[in-house]
Amino acid sequence: MSAHPSLDPSVVRWSVPPSERGDRPVLLLLHGYGSDEHDLFGLAPYLPERFVVASVRAPLAPPWPMPGASWYPIEGLDGRDPDAVTLAARAVLAWVRDAVGEAPVGLLGFSQGGAVALQTLRADPDAVSFAVVLAGYAAGGELPGDAVLAARRPPVFWGRGAADDVIPAALVDATAQWLPVHSELSGRVYPGLTHSISHDELDDVRAFLDARLALASPSSTG
Fold first, then answer.
1. What is the CATH number of the domain that holds 32?
2. Are the beta carbons of 24 and 103 closer than 8 angstroms?
3. By the 8 A CB rule, do 130 and 107 touch?
């Protein structure tokens, strides 16, 4: 496949200026299809303050008239190429290397961004500490990092709505099989929730993130 465009560092939203980041853990937000860096950044006030939140813009433009940006092309309900998801994940990894450095990094992605979050974890298990996947899925195929994940079982939160009809059922079923084998899985299916994020889900995400901070530094729960 052709090279994937890189992430544009000029369209990243940060929760704090460079002088306040230091070695604080970074939570990277990956938006969904047709959205941009402003969308998930609205969640920042609901997230633990200890995290430096960074929200990036996906590098591709979806077909007109869809607005916003996309991480990989979608052509019909079954048009989600795992190789394209991997290319997007490698673009995320390149951005992390350039913009974050040695600070711990966790990922939070919605829909397409959730798929990329998991694929980034799979592409380089050493670069990502955990993943929060909201209304997303695990792309098919196999990656070299899968065996590492199965041995390490990094923390993953997977939340989805019971009334979400956007992600094909086959992908949801495959993800439900894949995640328990390759992660320390927590999460919830939210009754009545469509392809969106609810307040109950945000509360669960906050608890998951607080637990990550507590394990990393018991005296700094943010």
1. 3.40.50.1820
2. yes
3. yes
The average pLDDT across 179-185 equals 98
Q: Is residue 143 part of a domain?
A: yes
In a domain, 72, yes or no: yes
Q: Does pLDDT of 1 surpass 50? A: no
Cβ density class 180-217: b for 16+ within 10 Å, e for less: eebbebbbeebeebebbbbeebeebbeebbeebbeeee
Give the pLDDT of residue 78: 55
| 45 within domain boundaries | yes
Is residue 198, in this structure, part of any structural domain at all? yes
**Does residue 133 carry a pLDDT above 50?**
yes
Are 26 and 100 contacting, i.e. CB atoms less than 8 angstroms apart?
A: yes
The total number of structural domains in the chain stands at: 1
Distance of CA 161 to CAs 31, 114, 167, 193, 205, Å? 17, 14, 10, 4, 14
In this model, does residue 219 exceed pLDDT 50? Answer: no
Q: Omega before 65 cis (within 30°)? A: yes
Place of tokens 């380089």: 124
What range does the domain containing 77 cover?
Answer: 9-216
Residue 179 and residue 171 in contact, taking contact as beta carbons nearer than 8 Å: no
pTM of the entire predicted model: 0.94
Q: Which token pair is 167? A: 């992600």
